[in-house]
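Standup notes, structure subgroup. Blocker cleared on the zinc ion input:
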Amino acid sequence: MSSEDFNKRLFKYLDDHQKDYIQRLSDAVAIPSVSAWPDHRPEVFRMVQWTKSFMESLGIAVELADVGEQKLADGTKLKLPDVILGTYGNDKLKKTVVIYGHLDVQPAQVSDGWDTEPFVLTEKNGKLYGRGSTDDKGPVISWLNVIEAYQKLNEPFPVNVKFVLESMEEYGSEGLEDLLKSLKNTFLSGVDYVVISDSYWLGKEKPCLQYGLRGICYFFIDVESSTKDLHSGCFGGTIHEAMTDLIAVMSTLVDDQGRILIDGIYDEVAQLLPEEAEIYKRITFDVKAYSAEAGVDKTIQQDKEQILMHRWRYPSLTLHGIQGAFDGVGCKTVIPRHVIGKFSIRIVPNMKIATIEKLVEKHVKNVMEKRNSPNKVSVKLEHGGDYWLADPNHPQYVAARRATVVVHGIEPDLTREGGSIPITLTFQEQTGKNVLLLPIGASDDGAHSQNEKFDVSNYMNGMKVMGVYFQEVARV
Ligand SMILES: NCC(=O)N[C@@H](Cc1c[nH]cn1)C(=O)O
Ligand SMILES: [Zn+2]
Ligand SMILES: [Zn+2]
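Run returned:
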């Protein structure tokens, strides 16, 4: 049978089973596998077991790798979720593809402003709303659905597949880097390509392939002022307040133009070369739609090239929150005794995590010295992940481009991504092979945000691209 004929059968099979795929995603979304919530760790374990059972039902050999314990801020220890290592096929004559994905999700609660229950997949106008629908349960399940479709069509699978599915990605992939290093000469030896579907198109219509990611350095600034919370009427104006110190420090980190104010932070950022500047001009990107997706009236930069550069090739600093601060409704006249400020810096070529860590420590120390405060202040790099860049002309990218053309009838843009998948570089280093980012979700999916969703059309077309990608990559 020609590949065109098989593709027709594959696409029909996938289309005919749309309902089953939505039900499967709904079952996965119903498990609130939030890695950042320690009390939800059993749910993360349940998600691992759910996926293991699904994989085993497809004849994938599954091994669970223990990656140790997580030490929480209060000193308690919590078991890290096992990493799923799956092996599908072991034919020496076939190429071997490693598929990485994650089963944990960002926190979500209706009170954050969701229109529906975040852990109940809700279909409205062709969109599937639910936490993890696009990040990253939808894409992970898509890969597995495609394997099932090949089986049901009695079609030999074109490649061997090795799965690495973790459940701490949204919390810095703790334990995974060491695991991959230990697997270099065993599970990861002899692989040919690595592919990751855990990112989004640049727009809503046009597919893309990505060859770059920013890294991340996530910091905690801990300020402690007293042994207990205090009445602001009795003590206000007489003691050095922890929150006042913390806000003073946090307000010195970034200016209103998004420029990071930490001395030396831009020193290692790669210079923009004329050839690179040209790349941004060729990319399809709708600035108005971007603002609309963010729900803002005005972005810092106005032109397309500048926005893309500030997403992909310049660092950014975001203030995320303050643990221990009063954030309830109403008024509470308290002086919090202990607050932890959280911020992250997205890092780009050629910034080094160790340099960033030193510069941030120095900056906080300088600001605090000027304040003459007796409070205990410490800075901690909670987790760090490197930036990553690959060669978009590599044959694996050519294979994925062909697959995209078959399904979408259009060449994908070759783009980068402003977010981070910290383990991508480790895969590249430990396998020595090309890594491809193959996004299937749309730019407005709202990962990490309220009302995260995955379009049914992206789910269906994403599986089709994955199905054809396996054939194309088998040939290169
Ligand atoms: N889909 C990728 C993603 O969302 N990655 C996270 C990774 C991360 C790192 N620290 C906390 N989360 C991201 O925020 O980019
Ligand atoms: Zn993700
Ligand atoms: Zn995410």
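Discussed briefly. Residues 102, 135-136, 169, 198 surround zinc ion (ligand 2) (CB under 6 Å).
Next: hand off to the docking folks.
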